[in-house]
């Protein structure tokens, strides 16, 4: 673990402005924390506390209204809160991953091709990429007869396995997980846990929201509770987050 | 009455990490048709390999802007550059008609909503594709034939019908011929003007799928105009929202759809959902 | 002072039938046409005592070129003795005092419909072709304004496309006459309804050629020593009519463009299309002193 954080979130604030209701919806305000390489932070909070919203604001599906998200990219430090769209697109391609419970399945693309795509984009040879894709499909428990099938026709659970295999095949610097274990069976959950542990060892920083945090208990370094704005380190001792 | 309900989203900075220069740059584009201000000071940048979606209702100026990108029309004011070898700093609106035509034929492909605009209905489909190559100076019949076949195949057009006349084909097939014609010379820029509007929903999905495949395999830079948010959402990396000739909002596609900033965009997105 | 003193004396007709202003108009356009080879020049087409479509364009050019020392040959489909050819030739000589001939070698002006003589023409001769449709783009672009713009841009993609389509549909290029040809590498022209056989004769020819359409009021020209290249695909050679092995049943000449005469039995016999060449060949066999000039085709092969 290096001494400079990978991600420095400072006073991040998100408010939705809803014109048709003439109203504002405050999601969270003044959230600050640091995230180091290889660190796993769990976001806690009751429904509507803004856990997913915070992930999406860092990912920039949502535009923050205040604060900074300083990120140490391979190309230099940048504030994700106000970075240009094309810079965000570049980081999404190269360094930052986001895993949701939904697969963006495209018609007529085979499961193994969907999974191999990030490797192909990174310049890995086709044979090697397909090899790895099949390995991860296997790890997550997708049966070999489905590898060449089109996931748009799969059940939710199978789609999610393909989704995870694709999202986790390439070690990225920062991984945002939005309830990836929903609708997974026990075998796939175990595979996910193994892969996350491996990525963490490789230095990938992870922020996650889990419906059942017990699934990933062994990986959690710190918790941030958005309901009470309390952060906990790997011990059970709790302290207020400096906001 | 407009309530100022709080902070606006942060102003976005200039690109810092992206090392590639934009392929397409338009700046200060304004155009009047009589009393109608069709475009008001529109700026656009499209980077190599990305799909830019332009969304807006009829009369928002989106199609006028696309026509200008295809050099079919010139604005009252404004500059347009494409980063093509040797043409980096040239305002394309200043080109003579001949140069404009050659540049379009070689570097810009377009698919229109109305296939009659893009196709010679009474010539063969393969001939429609070959015409582009002929304009570019290809004079070998066998090469023309092969390249036409290749482009039609890439557009997933059934090759046993490659010599059928477009007028005998279904709407979806006509769009594939247009697409094959547009990509035959491997253009730097592919413009799509409501390419699936008017097609059956199932055919529309297939044509969009072909477009996605092409984009993935060939990394063609695309500008897609549509009033259909579903089409834009499926295809685009970034989105520009236009209204009354102005760009009211632009951003990453998922951001524009999930967290629209402008009242008009919210209305559009909610109307869709 | 009366009006009569200011005007010229009345005369029945101007020299060469056309009045001075008509000839000036034509001369200007003919010079322009020579200056821009293959480019169509619009002109004010006058009335001549002949219906439009019967060679009025060619006739006006000839009447402008002619002088009392000219020797005029007029051919219609290769023959000098057709009613149309004979009438035009007689008319020209009557209004200009020029002499008439059937002999290609002896003519100074050759006005023709559908054929270029088989004997090679010289620098001091002028060929005037009667053209029904001077616009090669008519088939692909009915709008004349747009067609002119296409010529200006050298935008011949659609023309090439029709040739592509012919190969796709029929396996070969079906264009029999008026084969579109690139002049001087710049303008595509339609060389009047001459057969494919005759098009190579225009390439780097020693003589000047005018092509004039009276009804369409446009003329173009191929100056001497100018490239005329039929539009062909690099891997589909230009083919002339398959007449190399045919023999004229009357004169016995072989290897020239023939007219086919269907017979009752279902077969055909052939006669050489350039009738004066046939006559000369006959004269020669009969021992009369006859000079047959050098021909463009030798033994059925183009060899100029």
Automatic annotation (TrEMBL), chain A:
Single GO MF annotation: ATP hydrolysis activity
GO cellular component, one term: plasma membrane
Alphabetical UniProt keywords: ATP-binding, Nucleotide-binding
SUPFAM superfamilies: P-loop containing nucleoside triphosphate hydrolases (SSF52540)
Nucleotide-binding recorded as keyword: yes
InterPro entries attached to this UniProt entry: AAA+_ATPase, ABC_transporter-like_ATP-bd, ABC_transporter-like_CS, ABC_transpr_LolD-like, P-loop_NTPase
Annotated Pfam families: ABC_tran
Coiled coil start-end: none
Family per record: Belongs to the ABC transporter superfamily.
Record's protein name: ATP-binding cassette domain-containing protein
Organism this protein belongs to: Devosia sediminis
From TrEMBL, chain B:
A GO molecular-function annotation: ATP binding
Name of the protein in its database record: ATP-binding cassette domain-containing protein
SMART domains: AAA
Family annotation (Pfam families): ABC_tran
The family this protein is said to belong to: Belongs to the ABC transporter superfamily.
Keywords associated with the record: ATP-binding, Nucleotide-binding
ABC transporter domain location: 24-269
PANTHER family reported for this sequence: PHOSPHONATES UTILIZATION ATP-BINDING PROTEIN PHNK-RELATED
GO BP annotations listed: organic phosphonate catabolic process
InterPro entries to which the protein is assigned, alphabetical: AAA+_ATPase (IPR003593), ABC_transporter-like_ATP-bd (IPR003439), ABC_transporter-like_CS (IPR017871), P-loop_NTPase (IPR027417), PhnK (IPR012700)
Superkingdom of source: Bacteria
UniProtKB/TrEMBL annotation, chain C:
Catalytic activity: alpha-D-ribose 1-methylphosphonate 5-phosphate + AH2 + S-adenosyl-L-methionine = alpha-D-ribose 1,2-cyclic phosphate 5-phosphate + methane + 5'-deoxyadenosine + L-methionine + A + H(+)
Keywords: 4Fe-4S, Iron, Iron-sulfur, Lyase, Metal-binding, S-adenosyl-L-methionine
Enzyme Commission no: 4.7.1.1
Classification via InterPro entries: PhnJ
Coiled coil regions, renumbered to chain: none
Any one GO BP annotation for this protein: organic phosphonate catabolic process
The protein's role, per its UniProt record: Catalyzes the breakage of the C-P bond in alpha-D-ribose 1-methylphosphonate 5-phosphate (PRPn) forming alpha-D-ribose.
Protein name, as recorded: Alpha-D-ribose 1-methylphosphonate 5-phosphate C-P lyase
């Amino acid at each position: 673990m290096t001494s400079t954080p990978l991600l420095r979130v400072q006073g991040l604030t998100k408010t939705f402005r809803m014109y048709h209701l003439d109203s504002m919806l405050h999601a969270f305000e003044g959230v600050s924390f640091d995230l180091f390489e290889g660190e796993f932070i769990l976001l806690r909070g009751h429904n509507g506390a803004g856990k997913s919203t915070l992930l999406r604001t860092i990912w920039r599906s949502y535009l923050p209204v205040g604060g900074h998200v300083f990120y140490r990219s391979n190309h230099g430090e940048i504030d994700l809160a106000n970075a240009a769209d094309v810079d965000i697109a570049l980081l999404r391609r190269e360094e930052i991953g986001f895993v949701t419970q939904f697969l963006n399945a495209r018609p007529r693309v085979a499961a193994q091709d969907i999974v191999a795509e990030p490797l192909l984009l990174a310049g890995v040879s086709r044979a090697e990429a397909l090899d790895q894709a099949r390995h991860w499909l296997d790890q997550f428990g997708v049966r070999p007869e489905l590898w060449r099938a089109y996931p748009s026709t799969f059940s939710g659970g199978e789609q999610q396995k393909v989704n995870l295999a694709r999202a986790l095949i390439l070690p990225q610097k920062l991984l945002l997980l939005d309830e990836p274990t929903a609708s997974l069976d026990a075998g796939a959950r175990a595979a996910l846990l193994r892969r996350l542990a491996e990525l963490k060892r490789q230095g990938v920083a992870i922020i996650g929201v889990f419906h059942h945090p017990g699934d990933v208990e062994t990986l959690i370094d710190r918790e941030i509770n958005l309901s009470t704005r309390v952060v906990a380190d790997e011990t059970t001792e709790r302290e207020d987050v400096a906001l | 009455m407009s309530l100022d309900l709080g902070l606006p989203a942060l102003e976005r900075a200039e690109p810092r990490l992206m090392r590639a220069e934009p392929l397409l740059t338009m700046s200060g584009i304004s155009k009047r048709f009589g009393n109608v201000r069709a475009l008001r000071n529109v700026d656009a940048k499209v980077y190599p390999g990305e799909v830019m979606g332009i969304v807006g209702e009829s009369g928002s100026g989106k199609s006028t802007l696309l026509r200008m990108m295809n050099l079919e029309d010139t604005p009252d004011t404004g500059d347009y550059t494409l980063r093509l070898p040797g043409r980096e700093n040239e305002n394309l609106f200043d080109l003579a008609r001949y140069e404009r035509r050659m540049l379009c034929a070689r570097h810009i492909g377009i698919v229109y909503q109305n296939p009659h605009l893009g196709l010679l209905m009474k010539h063969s489909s393969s001939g429609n594709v070959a015409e582009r190559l002929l304009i570019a100076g290809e004079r070998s019949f066998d090469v023309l034939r092969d390249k036409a076949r290749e482009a039609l195949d890439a557009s997933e057009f059934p090759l046993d019908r490659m010599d059928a006349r477009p007028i005998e084909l279904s709407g979806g097939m006509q769009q594939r011929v247009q697409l094959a014609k547009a990509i035959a010379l491997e253009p730097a820029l592919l413009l799509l003007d409501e390419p699936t509007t008017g097609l059956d929903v199932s055919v529309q999905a297939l044509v969009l799928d072909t477009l996605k495949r092409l984009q993935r395999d060939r990394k063609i830079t695309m500008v897609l105009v549509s009033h259909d948010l579903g089409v834009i959402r499926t295809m685009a990396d970034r989105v520009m929202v236009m209204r009354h000739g102005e760009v009211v909002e632009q951003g990453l596609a998922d951001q524009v759809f999930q967290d629209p900033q402008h009242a008009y965009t919210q209305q559009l997105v909610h109307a869709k959902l | 002072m009366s009006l009569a003193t200011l005007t010229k004396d009345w005369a029945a007709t101007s020299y060469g039938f056309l009045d001075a202003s008509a000839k000036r108009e034509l001369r200007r356009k003919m010079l322009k046409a020579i200056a821009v080879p293959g480019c169509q020049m619009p002109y004010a087409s006058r009335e001549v005592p002949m219906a439009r479509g019967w060679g009025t364009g060619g006739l006006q050019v000839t009447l402008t070129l002619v002088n009392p020392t000219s020797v005029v040959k007029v051919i219609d489909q290769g023959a000098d003795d057709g009613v149309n050819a004979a009438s035009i030739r007689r008319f020209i000589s009557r209004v200009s005092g020029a002499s008439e001939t059937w002999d290609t070698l002896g003519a100074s002006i050759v006005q023709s419909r559908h054929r270029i003589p088989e004997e090679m023409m010289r620098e001091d001769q002028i060929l005037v072709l009667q053209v029904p449709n001077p616009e090669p783009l008519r088939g692909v672009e009915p709008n004349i304004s747009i067609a002119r713009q296409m010529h200006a841009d050298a935008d011949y993609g659609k023309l090439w496309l029709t040739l592509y389509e012919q190969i796709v549909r029929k396996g070969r290029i079906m264009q029999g006459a008026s084969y579109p040809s690139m002049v001087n590498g710049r303008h595509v022209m339609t060389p009047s309804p001459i057969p494919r056989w005759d098009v190579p004769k225009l390439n780097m020819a020693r003589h000047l050629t005018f092509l004039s359409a009276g009804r369409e009021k446009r003329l173009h020209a191929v100056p001497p020593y100018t490239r005329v290249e039929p539009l062909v695909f690099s891997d589909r050679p230009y083919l002339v009519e398959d007449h190399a092995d045919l023999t004229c049943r009357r004169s016995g000449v072989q290897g020239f463009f023939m007219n086919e005469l269907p017979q009752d039995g279902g077969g055909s016999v052939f006669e050489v299309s350039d009738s004066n060449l046939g006559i000369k060949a006959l004269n020669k066999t009969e021992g009369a002193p006859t000079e047959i000039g050098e021909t463009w085709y030798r033994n059925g092969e183009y060899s100029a």
